[in-house]
Amino acid sequence: MSTRVKNFIDSFNKRHRETINGSLWLAPSFLGVAIFYIVPFFVVVYYSVIQSPLNPNFVFLDNFISLFRNRAFMDGASNTLRFSLMAVPSAVVLSLLLALILEAKIPLKSQFRTFFLSPLMVPVASVVLIWQVLFHPRGAINEFLMFFGFSGIDWMQSDQSLFVVVILFLWKNLGFFMILFMAALSNIPRDVQESAETDGAGSIRQLIYIKLKYLSPTLLFVTILALTNSFRIFREVYLLAGNYPYGDLYMVQHFMNNLLVSLDYQRVAAAAVVMTLAMVAIIAVLFIAENRFGRDVEE
What is the full per-residue pLDDT of the chain (299 aa) written as tens digits? Predict the structure, then answer.
C-alpha cells in the first residue's frame, strides 16, 4: 500500500471518528429538542387535521375552514394584529432613540439606564398589580384626571384598553431592547464615523447612512423579539381582564385558551398551526428586508 493511500485512509478514519464523537456529544441536546419541540409540533399538526382525539378520522382542512368561519377567532386575530402593529414598531423605534440618547454624553446616564432596566426584575404579577392600581376606575390615573376637572374612565372596559396594554408592553420591554441597541452602537467602527464627520456629515446623515446600516442585524433581532413578545401578551391581558376581556383585548390566545378549557383540541391545534405559519411568514419577510438593507455593510 502506497504512502498516499495510507494517509488518505488514516485521514478518512480520523474524520469519521470526529464525526461520531461530535454526534455523540450533540445527541442529548438533539434528543431534548426532539422531545420538547419537534415531536409536540408534529402532534399538533396531526391534531389539526383529524376530527378529534377520540375520533381520529382524517378531515384535512375542515378544522381550518371552521376556524376562519369562527367570529371569535377572527376578532382575536384582528386584535392581535392591531396590537402587534402598534406595539412592535413603537418598541423598536423608542428603544433605538433611548440608546442613541444614552450613547451621548448626558448627565445621570447610569441612573437612566438603571431606571429603564428595572422592569426586567419585576415579576409579571407585580407589573399587572401596578397597572391595576394605576388604571382601576378609582385608581391613580383617574384620581389625577378628576383633580384637574376631567371625568374618570373605566380604562379596561373602554376603547383605550388596547393603549393601556401597549404602554404595559413598552414599559416591560424597552430597557432590554435599549441595551441590545447600545451594545450594537458601541461596535460600529469609530474610523467610519470619524471619516463621515470629516466629510461634513451631520448626526442625522450619520444615523441614516452609517449607524442604521451597521445596526440592521440588531434591528432584525429586536424586531423578532418584540414580535414574539407581542404574540405572548395574553399572560398580562389575562391577569388584567380575565378569560373574556373587553372586545379590543380579546386576543388569539384567549380563543385558544377557552377552546382548550372546553377540550376542543383539534381547533386549538389548527389555531396554533395558523399562528406558527403567520410568524414564520413575517420573520421570513424581515430576514429578506434585513439581507437587502445590510448588504452594503457586509460587502
Answer: 556 655 556 665 666 777 777 778 888 888 888 888 889 889 999 999 998 888 888 898 899 999 999 999 999 999 999 999 999 999 999 999 988 888 777 777 777 777 777 787 878 778 888 888 888 888 888 888 888 877 878 888 888 888 889 999 998 889 889 989 988 888 877 777 667 667 666 677 777 667 778 888 889 899 999 999 998 888 888 888 878 887 788 999 888 888 888 888 899 999 999 998 998 898 888 888 877 766 555 45
Are residue 20 and residue 166 in the same domain, yes or no?
no
Same domain, 226 and 127: yes
Q: CB neighbours of 238 closer than 8 A, spacing ≥ 6?
A: 253, 254, 257
DSSP for 143-193, written as a single string? HHHHHTTPPP--GGGSTTHHHHHHHHHHHHHHHHHHHHHHHHHHTS-HHHH
Domain count of the chain? 2
Q: 239 CB contacts (<8 Å, ≥6 apart)?
A: 124, 125, 128
Contact 256, 268 (CB under 8 A): yes
Tell whether 10 and 149 lie within a shared domain.
no
Same domain? For 75 and 44 the reply is no
* Domain shared by 128 and 261, yes or no: yes
On whether both 137 and 203 belong to a single domain, the answer is yes
**Do 191 and 256 belong to one domain?**
yes
Measure the CA–CA gap between 102 and 104, rounded to whole angstroms. 5
Task: Please state the pTM of the whole predicted model.
Answer: 0.81
Domain presence at residue 202: yes
Q: Residue 122: which domain range?
A: 69-298
